[in-house]
């Protein structure tokens, strides 16, 4: 990781680290099944934003679980001024 971070001196080291993990830990199937989404919602209701604990349940990284929850949450937002 230090080699990659030194090649991008303008980027914070933590961003380089998280980006590398998201590339190397990418799942073969990026779409979550409806059952998994429901389990994620239940886990979040029970544990709150304890992504490490929720990630252990799914066998994924905490960043993958957090991003999946963020996508689920974004699907439920009303967009635009004229949205019904």
What does this structure look like?
This protein has 84 residues and is mainly α. It has 2 domains: 1-27, no CATH class; 31-79, Homeodomain-like (Arc Repressor Mutant, subunit A, Orthogonal Bundle), CATH 1.10.10. 64% of the residues lie in helices and 0% in strands. The protein has 5 helices and no strands. Helix 3 (34-47) packs across helix 5 and helix 4 (51-58) packs across helix 5. It is elongated. It starts with a helix and ends in a 9-residue tail after the last helix. The model has no long low-confidence stretch (mean pLDDT 78). Residues 31-77 form the HTH myb-type domain. Pfam families: Myb_DNA-binding (PF00249). This is HTH myb-type domain-containing protein. Keywords: DNA-binding.
Oligomer: single chain
Quote the distance from N terminus to C terminus: 47 Å
Which spans have pLDDT < 50 for at least 5 consecutive residues? none
Query: What's the story with the biggest beta sheet?
Result: none
- Architecture (CATH level 2) name of the largest domain: Orthogonal Bundle
DSSP helix count? 5
Q: Specify the CATH class of the largest domain.
A: Mainly Alpha
Helix content: 55-70%
CATH topology of the largest domain: Arc Repressor Mutant, subunit A
Query: CATH H level of the largest domain: which superfamily?
Result: Homeodomain-like
* Helix/strand structural class: mainly alpha
Mean pLDDT across residues: 78
Count structural domains.
Answer: 2
Radius of gyration: 16 Å
Keywords: DNA-binding
Pfam families: Myb_DNA-binding
Domain HTH myb-type: 31-77
InterPro entries: Homeodomain-like_sf, Myb_dom, SANT/Myb
